[in-house]
Amino acid sequence: MENLLQRITFDQRVLYGKPVIRGLRISVETILELLAKGASNQEVLEDYPELEPEDIQAALSYAQYLVAGEVVLERMPV
Q1: Quick one: pLDDT at residue 77?
Q2: Could you give the percent of the chain with pLDDT greater than 90?
Q3: Are 34 and 42 in contact (CB under 8 A)?
Q4: CATH number at residue 56
Q5: Residue 62 belongs to some domain of the structure
Q6: What residues have CB less than 8 Å from 71, skipping those under 6 apart?
Q7: Tens digit of pLDDT for each residue in 7-26?
Q8: Is residue 74 part of a domain?
Q9: What per-residue confidence (pLDDT) applies to 13?
Q10: Of the candidates 25, 19, 28, 21, which has an alpha carbon nearest to the alpha carbon of residue 7?
Q11: 6 — pLDDT class (breaks 50, 70, 90)
Q12: Which of 35, 67, 76, 78 has its CA 20 to 30 A from that of 2?
């Protein structure tokens, strides 16, 4: 996973420091949004030809890493 996470970069000059893929102007958020809306990996790669399959996996791994570190507070029942 660590190798994948090296594909995620942060630079204040690129999308105001949001996590992006390999310094490109493609944010992790964009990739996750497309996948959440039902796009396949292949569709994402077709829409963004500069991406590699490992970039999509890196975005997913980054999201999992963030969620794994989340502090869960007691939640009120709905």
Answers
A1: 73
A2: 81
A3: no
A4: 1.10.10.10
A5: yes
A6: none
A7: 999 999 999 999 999 999 99
A8: no
A9: 94
A10: 21
A11: very high
A12: 35
- Checking if the pLDDT of 72 tops 80, the result is no
Retrieve residue 64's tokens: 């999992």
Contacts of 27 by beta carbon, 8 Å cutoff, 6+ apart = 15, 18, 19, 20, 21
Q: Which two tokens stand for residue 62?
A: 């980054």
Q: Both tokens of residue 42?
A: 């292949």
CB atoms within 10 A of CB 54: 14
Q: Is 14 helix (H, G, I), strand (E, B) or coil?
A: coil
In one letter, which amino acid is 24? L
Q: DSSP class of residue 50?
A: T
Neighbours of 14 (CB within 10 A): 16
Residue 31 and residue 1: Cα distance in Å, rounded?
18
